[in-house]
Amino acid sequence: MKGIYYLIFITFFACGNSGNTPTEDAPKNWATDIAENPEVHHIQSPEGCFRLASWNIANLGKSKDDSEIAYMAKVLKDFDVVAIQEVVAGEGGAAAVARLVDELNRKGSKWEYAVSNPTTGNGVERYAFLWRPHRIKLSGKPWLESQVAAVIDREPYLGRFTFGSKTFLLANLHAVPKDKGPNTEIAALKDLTKWYPNDAIVLVGDCNATQEEFGAQELYKVGFKDAMDNQKTTLKMKPDKNGQHLANAYDHIYLEQKEWLVSEHGCYDISQDWSDLKSTRLISDHIPVWACLSVR
pTM of whole model > 0.85? Predict the structure, then answer.
């Protein structure tokens, strides 16, 4: 692997357990719980790579109020391109993404976005891409991948983007829940390399499965690698007896290893911004994952 795939581990807001574990008995206070100094989250990126984030924002729709949208913008403002899962399928979902982008535009950089049509299976949702056009350009129109609609309930949302002179294909997935066979869906995406042989592919999202399970193993067989290295990304209802508040390593950044270099990667433990897990889960039960990437 030396010379092919580099990972430099850095800490981004205490991913994993820390001494600042949220407690369930602290009162909820929107005015004081939201982090007031967003600069502590700033990522210093190596030259020549872009910052990709993926986040399942639970039920992103009209139920999210202005303070919650403002908080999401503080979390995401330093990234270059963002893939979001679990956008509500109704009108409130697309409107919530627009509200989020409007808030991001107030942070000093211009943002653009695309929202998918509703997925065609039983678990109807939308996806979204957000990007800063002075860093990342969209090439063409994103699409829901119809070739896997028969086997993936929420078929992934794909878009081509350019960074500098390089083009890449970003695939955004929200797999079915654990008890409904997410690994079968993940395994089906190994064919992306066959359908799009000339693209540098990065597959991100909430897979509801870990990198050790057979879905990821099928991806590995065709040359993918998970940048997240088994990082837990879902939030428990409350900390366990050992103070652990993260549950499952379900959110991933799968890269075609021959096509990509990873300069840094990490996650943003949003629970550290709130007094308790109940308050945090009003934003989402997942934390964002991210990586600084460059196409070879």
Answer: yes
